[in-house]
Design goal:
Layout: E1 2-6, H1 8-16, E2 29-33, H2 34-41, H3 46-57, E3 59-62, H4 68-75, H5 81-95, E4 99-103, H6 107-115, E5 120-121, H7 123-132, H8 138-150, H9 157-168
Parallel strand pairs: 1-2, 1-4, 2-3, 4-5
Amino acid sequence: MKYLVINASPIILLGKIGKLELLALSGRKSITPGRVVKEVMQKHSPEALALEYALNNWLEAFDDVSNALTISSIIGEDVKRGEVDVIAKAYQLLDEKHDVIAVLDDRTARHGAHALSIPITGTLGIVFNAVRIGKITPEVGIRTVNELISVGARLDAILVREMIDKINSF
C-alpha cells in the first residue's frame, strides 16, 4: 500500500489557505498522528475546520507508534514529538514493505527522516506534485505558493524560486 504520513505544519499551512485537499491528490492513503490532530484542533481556526473535514473524508489519524522512543533516540531530542511520530510510523510502514512518503517541513525532522532512509517531501513538494500530475494548473500552483508565504510559511527563498521555476516548466 502507498502512504503519506503527514506532520502538523503541512496541515496547518494548507488548511489556512483552504487547500488541505492537495494532500489527498497523491493517490496515497493519508495518515497523521493523533498528537498532530490534537495540536491543530486546539484552536477554532480555518485549519482546524479543514482538518475536521479531512478526518471525516480522506485523512486517518493513528495512535502512538511502538518504536517512537527508539526513533527519537536515533534522530535526536530536537525533533518534536509529532514529527517523531510521523518518522516512526513511516519507518514502521517501510519495514512492513509499504511505499511511504513522510510529509515534513521542519529541517531537523527532515534530516532525521533522511538518516533513516525515509522518503520525504514538504508542503512545497505537495503543491509541486499536484501540478506535476495535472490536478492543478501551474498558475494555481504558483498562486498557492504565494498564499503559503502570505500566511507565514517560513520557506527558504531559494527553494521557493526553484519551485516556481519548476512549476513554470509545465
